[in-house]
Amino acid sequence: MKxxxxxxxxxxxxxxxxxxxxxxxxxxxxSKADVLNEALNQARIEETGLNIPKVLEVTMxxxxxxxxxxxxxxxxxxxxxxxxxxxxxxxxxxxxDIQMSVHQKTCPLLNKLKDKMNRKIAETEFDxxxxxxxxxxxxGMPKHNKxxxxxxxxxxxxxxxxxxxYILDWSHATQxxxxxxxxxxxxxxxxxxxxxxAELYLDTFCKKSDTxxxxxxxxxxxxxxxxxxxxxxxxREFLMSWxxxxxxx
Length: 249
Known about the structure:
Structural class: alpha+beta
Strand content: 15-25%
Distance between the termini: 56 Å
Number of helices: 9
Helix content: 40-55%
């Protein structure tokens, strides 16, 4: 196994290419349970028929856990957007189409989105009153069981050489309300500094799915709060500032 060609470096993990395999190696401090859960999520999503790289093996390399999957040759949607800025609206429309295809699937064994968000909100630095309000808002949202990616953004979509889109990174996958997944993608555009892209994305999604924008906006403080427990300090501050943005009472 060759680990000499790095194709991506992310928080706590490095992804290598070895021929037709992608090898995601996690740092020593990464939880074994989280690695196995990610591999299990990916295997369960395979069974839905969505276009994703298949899991080939879960192993240890030099004392570190690793997930080995199919390597998909192509460019990410993020790369294509930066190379062809004039096609941005076309690529965002494709992003929305792919996300809607995810939301059409169900996968009963995935963790529930509401359970995960309740757990994350409990871990936040907000005071008890704010946490109570967030938990109450979350419980009041409609219960769905659609597949939600949890980190759906242009860098997690690869367009293969034959034009087929593949969806990467299922570590955050849950089942729940699709509009929470959409709120997360919207905030990811913001975190990336692409506010016009965020607005274009939300407008496109709401139009194509016939979803009221206000409905997605109701999710934003809840999603921002649940995401604020991790990541860089600047990102946490930004997400925490969203918690009071939308008052839908």
